Amino acid sequence: MPVITLHYEDLEKLTGIDKETIIKRVPMIGADIERIEDESVDIEFFPDRPDLYSVEGAARAMRGFLDLETGLSEYAIKPYEVSISVSEDILKIRPFLGCAVVRGVKFTSSSIKSLMDLQEDLHWGLGRNRKKVSIGVHDLKNVKSPFRYMAVDPEFEFVPLDYTEKMSMTEILDKHPKGTRFAHLVRGFDKYPIILDASDNVLSFPPIINGTLTSVTESTTDLFIDVTGLGEAVYTALNIVVTALAERGGQIEFVRLIRPGGEELVLPDLEPKTRLLTTGEVKALIGMEFSVEEIVKQLERMRFGARALDEKTVEVKVPAYRADILHNYDLVEDIAKGYGYENIKVSVPETYTAGKSHPISLMRAPVNEIMVGLGYYEVMPFTLTSEKVNFENMRRQKTDDVTYVLHPISEDQTMLRTTVLPNLLEILALNQHRELPQKIFEFGEVVSNEITGQHVAAVSIHPQANFTEIYEVVDAFMREMMLPYEVKESEDPAFLEGRRADVYVNGKKLGVFGELHPEVINNFALGYAVVGFELDLNDLIGKN
Fold first, then answer.
1. Residues of the chain with pLDDT under 50
2. Cα(486)–Cα(173) distance, rounded to whole angstroms?
3. Out of 19, 71, 167, 459, which residue is the most buried by the measure of CB atoms under 10 Å away?
4. Residue limits of the B5 domain (predicted)?
């Protein structure tokens, strides 16, 4: 789940609340406090609330939750001055585009960082690592409308962000750090996406990199936001970004989007969606009677628009930035949060049963304690993955023990993982903007031949990561688990020859550790040495 750094100065300015109150109450809206620093707090928000991935979004939610400003947030939108046309040839490459202008924003170094972090977290949370959604934020002062979203030859040249010399788009994919990381999103097309202004200046090469001409600085006041992608999540991401900027004092302005054939679309669309909720639905899930007045009150605390239609029905206006409201169940969950889980009446179950810890839980406790003691942070990645990540990126041959998803909704989630390490490497790739070293682990499920097993895996990334480091970790882990073991030379192609070893217990292979092969590191677009291990603990569950 995304961890958001919120600076106290920004929080207090945007909420009007002291930091101690915020720290005390913010977990109740669906968050965990990771760490408290002198100038900021790191908060892990649930992944279904991308609107909270910024200090502006969190402040908006907290103002409602603490009854300082309740009800639906309304944002005035000025008529458009900027337009953008979409060419026919881009529709086969990256067909969805959402745009907006926000003027009068006053930036500081921390607010720029907040905006950049919001971009990256949305790329992960909504965009599946930029595949489905990618966001560009541009300083308007150096470019001129009308803009054009089109496809051009890969040899087209411009100066990419953080560079001073022109590069062709092919060179960017081969040499620029962002290009090498996201090249797979456009490889295979004869032409590449680009956004140009009226003078052929480059704003963006989506979903790869912006042009350096429109980079945002503390002197920037007027912004053009482009969001490109493969589906309607583009519009949700656009709404989240522009409303966050509006919370900072920006004035949202429409953009006229002209599609092939002359069809026109005016964005952003911040009109709330309407749902009807009954008192019976609320009681069925929470287990308590709520009047329509109480339901309205709690929905407004959670920043919905709400009004009673009769004694049993409430009309709810869902903000355009709330991507998580898919069913009335989601509304009821927010009512429970607004009311306070601590205030929900406790009742004794009608039937009595005696429970006990599951063997997996009994194994998980010492594993987690040992790994945390060794300086590793626990993560919880998805168990769904793809053949590319599970096998190809790891330089491993595809096996016949794979359990596939019958009707996958994404190319990234077509199978159940057979190993944990690739998911940990994906997490490292998503957190390259964080400081090094990074050390993470997971005790989690894998599926082989339709049978669920339990593996523990860990990775460490930093410039000096080496075989000795991970050997010491494995040795400490096995000793703490009181498992006599031996190591033998490994042939696992995911690791570097001569710097890899298999772990055996009672003559049976338990797992592998070592230095990840440079090709594996490149496949996950990581820039530093990585070491790791993975052990199958299935046979040990219930025995320790």
1. 544
2. 44
3. 459
4. 270-346
